[in-house]
Task: structure prediction
Amino acid sequence: MTKFMVPTEKEILDGESTDEYFIETMNSLEGAGINPRIIMEAYLKKFPDPNYKFGVVSGTYEVAKLLEGKPVDVYAMDEGEFFYPGEPVMRVEGKYRDFGVLENSILGFICKPSAIATKAARCKIAAGDKKIMSFGTRRVWPFDVSIVEYATTVGGFDDVSNIVGAKTIGKKPVGTMPHVLMLSAGSSEKGFDAFKKYSSNEAKNIALIDTYSSPKSELFEALKVFGDELYGVRIDSGDRKKTGKEIRWELDIRGRNDVKLFCSGGLDEYSLGELKDIYDGFGVGTRVADARTFDFALKGIEFDGEPRAKVGNYGGTKQVYRKDFSTKDIVTLDKYEAPKEYNPLLKPLIKNGEIVKEFKKPDDIRKKTVEKLKSLPPRLREIDTPYIEMVDFRGWP
Result:
């Protein structure tokens, strides 16, 4: 067994990260001399959370690198584009045996990143103009940290905390301090003092004030140690709404309204809405990094020019048209001309194995996402109460 259970790039590109039945399908088609030119579309039937109003596409860059050099054509929505269930976000065209074994990886590259980007976008809506930092990479497999930081950025997060994740997407990591610093030092005051003296010059003095005692008393210790150099304080537990108001009061009456308030710990779009008027920024982790995966499916809809699809799917090559977010998207056959003032969303990504799209930097995608979030109509910006599934426990042992 290898040291870490992760496939190599070669194994992924060779199609070894697939399911066995794809291999048997390839064997069967090859033996029968069948190899149609197939068109497959990736789409989502429904969101995992019924409160979602839209999704955010992410992961198309990896799909492009996966299929680069293969004799295929690929059309896809832009990275960071908004989409709705039922409309294709990607289309792959080519001889089936040239790419069919890669279906697992194609879907894997868009399912989780799109879910994370969408959750991040919803958090950004809930937080308004307040800063949001990605704090969730400790909750995922270490090989996934870069995609978490990338997808949260695509979804609108301002900063990321993971070192290699930040390096991958061309950003500088940010952070505060963990409870273990104060616990190791034996007191919050000693921990703050060590941070002040020995942290890097780039680190901002943001004190975590809920380790040993009340946040109020640890705030006073932070003010004593850092003085005018205290940039902010972070609260990670307890009743953060009540505590945040109390800490802001104590700072203001001491003339320290320059000190910023940050909050973290189990936050999501539902809790952020209650806290955004109190805090200046948030560290959001587990709920976004572990966002429920989007169940994209890659379905064959045309074979050797003949529209053909399984029961429940629409055959024929399709295009998605959008005018703006106030109108409904139009999904129709690709052969039809675009309606007036509507623009096609499925754009060329690969032509005969060559990547023809120029990918934007993650921060540039983030800026565009944030602009789109602000332009959404109210019906799409609503963050409803979490959906609760009622479970019948009768019959359990």
Residues 68 and 354 are 6 Å apart (CA to CA).
